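are you around this afternoon, could really use another pair of eyes. what follows is a protein written twice so to speak, once as letters and once as structure tokens for the fold. i want to understand how the tokens follow from the sequence so walk me through it. anything you notice is useful, everything is just below.
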Amino acid sequence: MLKAKDNRHRRPGRRNSVGEWAVTILLLLFGTTAIAQPFVIPTGSMEDTLLVGDHLIVDKLAYAPPDWLGKHLLPYEEPRHGDVIVFRYPGNIAETYVKRLIGMPGDRLKIIDNVVYRNGIRLNEPYVYHKFPPDAERDNFPGECCLPVRQPLALKLQKDMLAAHVANGELIVPPNAYFAMGDNRDNSEDSRFWGFVPRENLVGKPVFVYWSYNASTEDLSGNSAGSLVHHFVDVGTHFFTQTRWERTFRIIRGFPDSQLPDHPLPVNTGSANP
């Protein structure tokens, strides 16, 4: 586009690229400390953006309130639409989830036939994949209470959200909270099921994939000693053949509103076995 030639439009992109690589280098240098945390994707809720078995480095300082010195040295930022965020699951804060930020404080949201509308504007989301058949209850939101969810606390949070934050058929995101959804939209237990992500639950944002290994959800979740043993044996036996080498050091970027297409997109089914 012609506007891209204007320096006012080019500088933010350059700063963002420099900032991304600066954070990546810092995390590689200092490892898993207060500024970084390893995280593995155990489920397919973010496919095909993030795959089961992707091992990520998470920047824990990205959304942290900067101090007087740090704000001049590190690229702190506020959460934005389209960011991929890592957070403590409101239904059980011992668990950590990764989703995409769809709604910010004050946003009005509704979903009609699996299409998200924010503040009355249709979102044409190129990162979304639809791998399951349509489901009227799941694909239209907000609807009647309640979508099925595992934990009792999550069900309570869902009920509270629908009771207190719906007006004229739209969900209104309250202050200091976010609405998050998975990119694998038909197979994601997200804010539709357990409510908002409180600001204090944010852990950070993933920066890059440092290793991707084709493993099962059962092995990666490690819910039993047997699954852990099986995973270690599997890695020792198939490390070279099951590692997705093409994903190594892949940078993970958000998708800002400015990059959303202005026209509806065809349904993206992604890969059956990514």
Q: What stands out?
A: The two ends are 33 Å apart (CA to CA).
